[in-house]
Amino acid sequence: MSLFARAEPALSAAPGTGRVPTRERMVVGNWKMHGSLALCREMVPAMASVAQPDAALVLCPPAPYLGEVARLAANTDVQCCAQNVADAHSGALTGEWSAGMLADLGCRYAIVGHSERRRHYHETDHLIAAKAQACLEAGITPIVCVGESWVHHQTGQTEVVLQHQLGTLLALPEWHRLIIAYEPVWAIGTGVAARPDTVEAAHRYIRSRFATRDPVVGNNMTVLYGGSVNADNATQLFALPDVDGALVGSASLQSDALMQIYTAALRPGAATATSGAAHGARGDQATE
Ligand SMILES: O=C(CO)COP(=O)(O)O
């Protein structure tokens, strides 16, 4: 391939292994484009002091800080995750980085298809699937974000949107190795999470889509919720039977809040899920 040619997307390679995934408790802190070297140096040791092998504690700093977070997290139970990744393994793609480079750093995960990338960088379902495939080929587990807009939510089209977003992913050779994060766009950054019954229904639907390919995978895959998760609502969300953990945005920038959310994930049966119209300012969202 010419040095200046675009590298081939990785969508077509690698047959599946047929392995059953292990359902994992996880709290993933997505810093988005926030933070600093100082925050990396404060956050990683703080999180390492509470992280345990039975629930993954994953930090997603901006790309320039991945090396520092990976270095600080080495030999701890804190894991490192990228917020984005290229759909190719190498090539003349200025400004991109590959899943293999993340693996080189010791990162275990990459977020793929966040709604902010779908919206601001026009990422399509096909590109997102190619990025996920590139991750899988490099030994990185993609955390693929799906979720509907407020309009789709209000008009009862959540499942239609999810079916569409999941369709390309289910065509991947190693579809069974994906982690899915359900992030309703309308709950992100609002300070008010989706109501527990809304979250549970979406997670159950996601599992059902995977179960059409293999019921065991549908049951054993890891499905995270994201959208205004905080120390006050985490226990309620984590008590839902089909929620395995959270993809946390703004609360992940404060070590105290992230520690409390992580601690809630360690006690999955501690709280009883409640739902109903009493919760949420819009009647669609969880109590803060
Ligand atoms: O987008 C999110 C995580 O990826 C959620 O962000 P907030 O927790 O700030 O709503």
Automatic annotation (TrEMBL):
Cross-referenced Pfam families: TIM
UniProt entry keywords in alphabetical sequence: Cytoplasm, Gluconeogenesis, Glycolysis, Isomerase
EC numbers: 5.3.1.1
Binding site for substrate: 30-32, 189, 228
NCBIfam families: tim
Assembly mode: Homodimer.
MF terms in GO: isomerase activity
Pathway: Carbohydrate degradation; glycolysis; D-glyceraldehyde 3-phosphate from glycerone phosphate: step 1/1; Carbohydrate metabolism; erythritol degradation; Carbohydrate biosynthesis; gluconeogenesis
Family annotation (InterPro entries): Aldolase_TIM, TIM_sf, TrioseP_Isoase_bac/euk, Triosephosphate_isomerase, Triosephosphate_isomerase_AS
Source organism, top-level taxon: Bacteria
Keyword Isomerase recorded: yes
Similarity-based family: Belongs to the triosephosphate isomerase family.
Residues the record marks as active site: 114, 183
Gene3D superfamilies noted in UniProt: Aldolase class I (3.20.20.70)
First-level EC class: isomerase
UniProt function note: Involved in the gluconeogenesis. Catalyzes stereospecifically the conversion of dihydroxyacetone phosphate (DHAP) to D-glyceraldehyde-3-phosphate (G3P).
Organism of origin: Silvimonas iriomotensis
Signal sequence coordinates: none
Reactions this protein catalyses: D-glyceraldehyde 3-phosphate = dihydroxyacetone phosphate
Protein name: Triosephosphate isomerase
UniProt-listed HAMAP family: TIM_B
Localization per Swiss-Prot or TrEMBL: Cytoplasm
